[in-house]
Amino acid sequence: MVTLKGEHIFLRALEPEDLEFVYHIENDENIWHLSHTQTPYSRFLIKQYLDNAHQDIYEAKQLRLVISNYRNEALGLIDIFECDFKNKRAGIGIVILDAENRGKGNGSEALALLINYCFTHLKLHQLFCNISENNTESLKLFKNNGFEIVGLKKDWNFTNEGFANEYLLQLIK
What we know:
This protein has 173 residues and is α+β, with helices and mostly antiparallel strands. It has one domain (2-172): 3-Layer(aba) Sandwich (Aminopeptidase), CATH 3.40.630. It has 6 helices and 7 strands; from the N terminus they run E-H-H-H-H-E-E-E-H-E-H-E-E. The longest helix has 15 residues, at 106-120. It is globular. GO terms for molecular function: acyltransferase activity. Keywords: Acyltransferase, Transferase.
């Protein structure tokens, strides 16, 4: 699919071979706060998830894709979630696993590819994301890709440091 191919990376469907990669991401306590996870996932549960990843986005209301470079190395994951096809909107989340692959344009290229896919193939009207107030890298990434801050949810998430505010960002086609 040409839509999901960029200059340096491409987005692809999850494969059974991604078990260890997804397991590593889902069990990385350093990024649990991004997905509001509080418990680890077993390989068994992730295998079941991968076995069901073939579900159509219109049925599952979500889509998770692997961000891969052209050496076929998985760099991260990008998600479409809370798909509301009646109102033509969906949420987007992204994670680049290793710090060495961040800040090199991989996330920006992946986000641009997914935005294009959402607007051209899924015919969505708007996208949204929720980003912690102190996650300056993600705020910069989404703002550089056209998202605008439309609200601040005060004391929205409880973290090890106490309550944290969270921004709501939107991109309207």
